[in-house]
Amino acid sequence: MFHNPRELAMTARLHPVLGTEHAAARRKDSAATSSWPKRPGLFGNVAGVTALALMSAVPVHAGEPEHVAAQRQDAAQAQAHGDPLANAQAEAEQQLHQTFTNLRFEDFGPAPVEGPLYQATAGGKIIYFAPQSEHLLFATVYDRNGVNLTALAQEQGANRRLKAIEPAKALAIGPVDAPTVIEFTDPDCPYCQALDRYWNAKAAEGKPVRRLIFFVSGIHPTAAAKAEHILCSPDREAAFKAAYSGQTPPVLRQCAAGRDKVAADAELVARVGVSGTPTLIADGKLISGFQQAELEAFLDGHAKPALAKAATDAPR
């Protein structure tokens, strides 16, 4: 197969894994394996040996799909010809595999996003904008350690907006000494009604909360009127419970103070950036929607210190 001993020696150096005995066996031009060329002279010059070296230099990833292997081979060949874009892509792919070693990637290539990327907040959510290519990204950004940077930025923004909330102006429901949550809610929102049932069930279990209520009135058409009815009722907590259990009185109460409070809540909702209901703030953390697992964690976190205090205060 290889008739030039110099070529064989060069190839043996490029593939030391073959060993001296294996390389010598190749000299006999016996039935070589199908992975080697059978035509004499295919690698019969320096350029051919160089091409073989380049093919051997391409990193191999076990079990990767054929189209990914082909892309990797194309990138390596383009890199050999000095294509700067291909070089950048190859370097980026290599860095991706080296940085996130616990993930397996099926494909790799240029993204449609071009130029710098900027971060913005809309409705309490983090979004990303690429002005050069005019792309808007609703995405989650992680660093190499698995930290959710988008969630951190969202929480930091929520903490800044918390300063606009005055708890004393909220409709307070629940025991004064219970764990406190700020709740943006809508009487006609089915998930808000489900959340109210959840809080009632937890109170029955001995895990009450103090809810600081602000009404969101811009989603459902009758939400503002029902919120005003609650605020104008002699027993506002009872009226709240009735409304959130689905009861609608034949006549909704009206009053100037209730109307002003609904309007003030609407301004606060816009300032804080609440776009959906229910939205809660528990221990400074923004919770969008009825997220039962997060609420359970909040209650459990407050239950442990209470149990520890009770054990300490118990007579001995």
What would you note in describing this structure?
- There is one protein chain.
- The protein has 316 residues and is an alpha+beta fold.
- The chain has three domains: 5-99, no CATH class; 118-162, no CATH class; 167-313, Glutaredoxin.
- The protein has helices at residues 5-14, 19-26, 46-57, 66-80, 84-99, 149-162, 190-204, 223-232, 236-244, 256-272, 292-313, and strands at 118-122, 125-130, 135-137, 171-173, 180-185, 210-215, 279-282, 285-288.
- It has a five-stranded mixed sheet with strand order 4-6-5-7-8, sandwiched between helices.
- A hairpin with a 2-residue loop joins β1 and β2 (125-130).
- α1 (5-14) packs parallel to α3, α8 (223-232) runs antiparallel to α9 (236-244) and α8 packs across α10 (256-272).
- The radius of gyration is 33 Å and the shape is elongated.
- The N and C termini lie far apart (93 Å).
